Amino acid sequence: MHDTMIIASLLVFLNVTLLAILVPGGPIENRDFSKLKGGVFWGFNLFLILLGITSFIVCYLLLISHPNAILITKIIAVLYFIVYIIDLAGIFPKSPTKMSAPLMLFEVINASMAVFLFLFVTAIENVGL
Known about the structure:
- The chain crosses the membrane at residues 6-28, 40-63, 69-92, 104-124.
- The protein is mainly α and 129 residues long.
- It has one domain (2-21, 32-127).
- The chain is built from 4 helices and no strands.
- The protein has helices at residues 2-20, 38-63, 69-88, 101-127.
- Helix 1 (2-20) packs antiparallel against helix 4 (101-127), helix 2 (38-63) runs antiparallel to helix 3 and helix 3 packs antiparallel against helix 4 (101-127).
- The protein is elongated, with a radius of gyration of 15 Å.
């Protein structure tokens, strides 16, 4: 079972890395979010930062097979999925700049990785891989 926990930890690390490369102003995210109000902008950024930090902590918890690691990982996977889906659906965050094709592709891949992470840790929990 320890090998599967290492793989789960690597999948969480991959998810947080895929999120990090989508930082506004980075190589892929080129939309303008200056229209977002301060509280909304900083609140969303704080949420994403906390999601990233929590992901790194969960990587460690999975490696040591902490009893709550699977549950926390499932929650994180759902949060990643929600972040990408609400952006792909155009719900939030709204930008006057259209989403580029590479960004859209990355978000679809990232949402898929979040689903895969959820299914993988659910299999660990249910089957005891």
